[in-house]
Design brief:
Blueprint: H1 3-13, H2 31-49, H3 60-69, H4 74-101, H5 110-132, H6 137-151, H7 157-165, H8 174-203
Helix pairs in contact: 2-4, 3-4, 4-5, 5-8, 6-7
């Protein structure tokens, strides 16, 4: 990429000037931006956990124990991954509440509100699938309940339950499917939606005023 094009790209991401009211620090300042940093931390820490995790019903829980008690710095990295995920969920929820209260979903930002809602759903689902990957008794029951709830939805329920949670019986491919959703598919889809979200922010006139 030519140097001029690269600088133009950077200026598109970080404009030289923003409205003064948008730069004032308030209690809702940069909730979305902080959520992005948590997402990046999740990607890095998750990539390290992938080196030890075994996505199979017979080995998943044992691999978690190895990460926590045997692998160098495994307990620290796993806790970073866990707490960054919980903080990300909280930040995204608070960000959506802030957008709703300030009316920032009104035109011309209505489509970005829909994108934001999609990212909220993605955040909750990726957090839940991470909880299932531990595959202890609580995870097994959580998977059972979630799959039955999804399966009971009209028309698309069985398809969604099968695609997201796998077969109704615990098998060798079950955790592979959950692992694929948690590690590759959901983060990839969310990354694309985040890029679209940022582009819409610029297109719709920049970030909205803080509460």
């Amino acid at each position: 990429m030519p140097r001029g094009s690269f600088l133009t790209f950077l200026l598109h991401l970080h404009p030289r000037s923003i409205p003064e009211v948008s730069a004032k620090v308030g209690f809702t300042w940069c909730l979305g931006g902080l959520a992005i940093w948590m997402f990046a931390l999740e990607v890095v820490s998750g990539a390290l956990l992938m080196l030890y995790y075994v996505p199979a019903p017979a080995g998943a829980y044992l691999s978690i124990q190895e990460i926590a008690y045997v692998a160098p710095y495994g307990f620290f990295i796993r806790n970073i991954h866990y707490w960054a995920g919980q903080i990300m969920v909280s930040l995204v929820v608070l960000h959506m509440i802030r957008v709703f209260i300030t009316g920032s979903f009104a035109p011309p930002r209505q489509w970005n509100w829909v994108i934001g809602l999609s990212l909220l759903v993605g955040t909750l689902v990726v957090d839940f699938t991470g909880y299932l990957l531990v595959w202890d008794d609580r995870s097994l029951w959580a998977w059972t309940i979630a799959r039955n709830v999804a399966d009971s939805a009209p028309i698309v329920g069985p398809l969604v339950a099968s695609l997201l949670f796998g077969a109704s019986e615990v098998g060798a491919t079950l955790l592979v499917r959950l692992y694929a959703w948690h590690v590759f598919l959901l983060p990839g889809i969310m990354g694309l939606f985040m890029a679209w979200h940022f582009w819409r922010i610029r297109k719709d006139g920049g970030i909205s005023a803080p509460l």
